[in-house]
Amino acid sequence: MDTEDLGLFGPGSVTWKVHEEPILIVAGLRSLYLQALHPRAMAGVAQNSNYRADAWGRLVRTAGYVATTIYGTTAEAEAAGRRLRALHARLRATDPLTGEVFRVDEPDLLRWVHVTEVESFVTTARRAGLTLTDDEVDGYYTEQRRAATLVGLDPGDVPGTAAEVGAYYRDVRPELRMTREAAETAVFLTAPPIPWKLSLPVKLGLSLGPPRWAYLGVAGAALGLLPPWALRLYGGLGLPTTALSAEVGVRALRLALAAVPRRYREGPLQQVAKERAARLAAA
Asked: What separation in angstroms does the CA of 34 have from each of 144, 181, 216, 240, 282?
């Protein structure tokens, strides 16, 4: 396998255009709020994960996996997929409604996680101000079928356009509901423990510092950007202006992040991928 290839996507792909956006930190959180509404998927996570005790470690690992699939070489992306499939193949959970024991790598569950992630990425980027045509949005969904194969999905069973994603959500909505686990997860996502270095002022009895307030702003924006039907399942969280205020907020945050020097807002895998692409272009 060529260690200098462009990976699954590469420059010129819609995927690279979308994932150039640091605002996708909001998108990742938005996808978790959505995923929690699927009782079976939520059971798979809750019964096989210590996410409450290691929230930030899990976040870092997930972000690393996504970055590898987007910016790694083909060999690196495929290796990451093999590791994830091997992990999922060992895991079982009990359906909270039926008592049935199931595998967490059931195609329906993998598809739900995949669609909520990619839809959150492209929707958040667009609402934050990234200019994307309808054709580019469809192109993103089609490209992301390559990532879906890494977790074991048949690309033909994965929505590949915005219309197909919309139809998928309509079909799956009867399975979604607010459960106790979903509610607890939503509360946890909104106010998770802060890494110890950042939480020191709180431990010393000081008021909430910038890290906590900043995170609450991100969580509020992620909730506000949820589809209306998802907000209704969460009990109608927020005011009627929630969606508008969330969009204004993410646009402002995107502009603020754009002012940060590129070397600080790009991850190492992204930087290496761009250097590799430049070498290949020069050659």
From this structure: 19, 13, 18, 19, 43
Residues in the chain: 283
The gap between the terminal CA atoms of the chain, to the nearest Å, is: 18
Is 206's pLDDT higher than 50?
no
The Cα 265–Cα 260 span in angstroms is 7
**Percent of the chain scored above 70 by pLDDT?**
90
Each residue's pLDDT tens digit, 84-102: 999 999 999 999 889 999 9
Contact 158, 115 (CB under 8 A): yes
| DSSP classification of residue 103 | E
Q: How far apart are CA 185 and CA 58, in angstroms?
A: 14
Surface-to-core class of residue 136, CB atoms within 10 Å of its CB (0-12 exposed, 13-18 middle, 19+ buried): middle
pTM, two decimals, is 0.90
Task: Give the residue carrying structure tokens 């699954």.
Answer: 8
